[in-house]
Amino acid sequence: FRNMCVMSGCDYLQSLPGIGLAKACKFFSLTTNTDTFNVLCKIPAYLKMPQLEVTLAYRESFMRAVSTFLHQLVFCPRERLLRPLNNLDDGSSPEDHPYAGMFMGHKEALQIALGNIDIQSKKLVDNFDPDNYQAPAMKSSSWSKSGDEIADPYSIWQPDYDRSVHY
């Protein structure tokens, strides 16, 4: 499915001329070869598009796009770390994959995730600290009915947060 999406065009790679989701699906349903890099050369033959040229540059970009989807940097709020979405099994580090996101350091990533640093300007815009956050006291209101339930006050930033309880 991922390969189909990349081949039909995605944020990381434009599609080949005349290739959309249907043709990408057809191509990957026709092949049993798991060596994606080499099987991409067979697109013109499998799809009966002899005028189509699949260059080495396209195949390399295709593999980089797939790698980006697999290993893009994400912030894990539970671990408070900037990490690849999936582990890098080849012994490389996030710095070796700049196309999958810029590794900026865990502390800066945490501050961006908290909304304390503006992602564009990199300037400090707030100083929210989830470890020292005190929820404001609930105020009574003539609009609310007696016995109304309030929203769940738990936050993913709390150390005792348990996702299985809150989803």
Automatic annotation (TrEMBL):
UniProt KW keywords: DNA damage, DNA excision, DNA repair, DNA-binding, Excision nuclease, Exonuclease, Hydrolase, Magnesium, Metal-binding, Nuclease, Nucleus
Enzyme Commission number, as recorded: 3.1.-.-
Top EC class of this enzyme: hydrolase
Cellular component GO terms, alphabetical: nucleus
Cofactor: Mg(2+)
Cofactor binding description: Binds 2 magnesium ions per subunit. They probably participate in the reaction catalyzed by the enzyme. May bind an additional third magnesium ion after substrate binding.
Record has Cell cycle as a keyword: no
Protein purpose: 5'->3' double-stranded DNA exonuclease which may also possess a cryptic 3'->5' double-stranded DNA exonuclease activity. Functions in DNA mismatch repair.
Name of protein: Exonuclease 1
Organism annotation: Hirondellea gigas
